Amino acid sequence: MGGVSTSSLPTLPAAPAAGRPDVTARLRDALIGASFTADGLLELLGAPAYAALARSETVPALRATRGDTPLAVLVRLFLLQQPVPHARVADVVPVDACLESGWLVRVGSDEVAATVDVRPYGGPDGEDWFIVSDLGCSVGGAGGIGSRDEGVVLGVGGASTTLAGLTVRTPVASALDLGTGSGIQALHAVQHATRVTATDLNPRALHITALTLALSGAPAADLREGSLFEPLKQGETYDLIVSNPPFVISPGARLTYRDGGMGGDDLCRSVVQGAGELLNEGGFAQFLANWQHVEGEDWQDRLRSWVPRGCDAWVVQREVQDVTQYAELWLRDAGDHQGDPAEYQALYDAWLDEFEARKVRAVGFGWITLRRTGSAVPSVTVEEWPHPVEQPLGDTVRAHFERLDYLRANDDAALLEAHFRLAPEIIQEQVGLPGAEDPEHVVLRQHRGMRRATKVDTVGAGFAGVCDGSLSAGRILDAIAQLMGEDPVMLRDRTPAQIRLLVEQGFLEPA
Questions:
Q1: 239: helix, coil or strand?
Q2: pLDDT value for 210
Q3: Where does 228-374 have alpha helices with state H?
Q4: Which of 118, 184, 189, 426 is the most exposed place for a label (fewest CB within 10 A)?
Q5: Measuring CA to CA, how many Å separate 442 from each of 65, 116, 480?
């Protein structure tokens, strides 16, 4: 999440100098040479201690790094933020150059400490990347975020990796990372975009992003300070826009890293609506977002109203929390539950007052994908899918919109002339009472991507089962009609709707 509302920055340690690429390159070589990588970290700590870090529990990791190996030294220094003797660090990294450029500072008489969190992060093709963030702000860092002031720059978390996995990764000329934070989305984008622009209200976030890219050995991005779309120049457009914005719906904007600073879900709405005119034809915009469930209003209609003109959209609601659950989640995120009980109660009341005034009964969380289309009638799909999915989903997202194009271009007559094949790893389940001659219904289930399941009738199951691309849909239906003793004309008339649904949901692929 990147900041979007103005506030005074807290007193934070000086970040390393971005203008010393020589030192950054030497530090990167030293980190990789000591196996300070995602795989090396897991091997050293073991799965339980590695998982405990994500819960901000450091004791297992501290126990696992009591040795004196170069990797243990680096984990204590950059991930657990422990002071380490100068002489021991000098055996592993170019310590004097790191002190001079600000990666490290002297503490006590003979120890050094890190000025930033550095977390190893494995790229999608096995790259050794590093996400830089403020001390204690990485998942796997030493401490929780707590209620520190707004200028902190968070590291990579579950939301960041979810968006990275969702993003369509086709090669593009231009990409925009809106509210870049520590730069994880920009880091992914520079691998497949010729030009990457990253914006953030917080100048420290832009500095940290530059460090993330440099320490990961990645190309630089065009970093611009400002809120949301403000830093963009007139007429600039992009093939890809991504944003993990500060989407939390809260009273006021205490914490810029998470609170949008606008009323209700207006920030998410404005981000989605503003992206439409910045997309090139065929370009994608992908966001994480929260949205209100308002009394007397269909939440799906609310989301449809956000979709800008000229864009197809696919909105997936992954989770819904009632207002009390939602308030408690983010009060705990800020550490408010550990402070003065009266203050906690006052903050909790303020959240519920805000929701009550807006007639909000619950808050939804999910993904929004836009694609710029030249179609006269754009397609908008808004659905709820709380079930497990298989990340990364970028190819699944791209295929969804390709199937929309196919179905728009083919009427029912054309579908009957077309050839289809069953998508990989689809299984059929028959549901019914034990011992019954016939199942109550048949379910087709995907084991990849969205892992959807859909009920089909006997004709649909039979049709899908023989789709191998060799026969047209019409010929298959004629054969099924003969086997079932049905009128082939009537079967051809009523089945295309079911074929269309199976194609739309990814069970059938045009051959």
A1: strand
A2: 96
A3: 266-275, 299-306, 323-333, 341-357
A4: 426
A5: 53, 55, 16
Instruction: For residues 511 and 508, give the distance between their C-alpha atoms in angstroms, rounded to a whole number.
Output: 9
Q: State whether the Cα torsion 317-318-324-326 is positive or negative.
A: negative
pLDDT per position as a tens digit, 298-342: 999 999 999 999 999 999 999 999 999 999 999 988 777 788 899
Distance CA 313, CA 32 (A): 41
Q: Which amino acid is at 256?
A: T
For 9, list phi and psi in degrees, rounded to 5.
-75, 145
**Which helix (H) or strand (E) covers residue 510, if one does?**
strand 508-510
- Sequence-ordered strand ranges (E) for 2-146: 84-85, 104-107, 111-114, 117-122, 128-133
Burial of 488 (0-12, 13-18, 19+ CB in 10 A): middle
Q: Are 424 and 468 in contact, with CB atoms under 8 Å apart?
A: no
For 201-244, write each residue's pLDDT tens digit. Answer: 999 999 999 999 999 999 999 999 999 899 999 999 999 999 99
Which among 224, 261, 252, 282 is positioned nearest to 405, based on CA atoms?
Answer: 282
Tell me the CB-side half-sphere exposure of residue 219, using CA atoms within 13 A: 13
Task: For residue 233, give both structure tokens.
Answer: 């120049």
Task: Give bridge partners of residue 118 from the DSSP assignment.
Answer: 132
Least confident of 72-86, 89-103, 243-257, 274-288: 243-257
User: Tell me: the pLDDT tens digits for 437-493?
Assistant: 777 889 999 999 999 999 999 999 999 999 999 999 999 999 999 999 999 999 999
Buried b (16+ CB within 10 A) or exposed e, 410-431: beeeebbebebebbeebeeeee
- Measure the CA–CA gap between 211 and 473, rounded to whole angstroms: 55
pLDDT digits (tens, 9 = 90+) for 44-78: 999 999 989 888 789 999 999 999 999 999 999 99
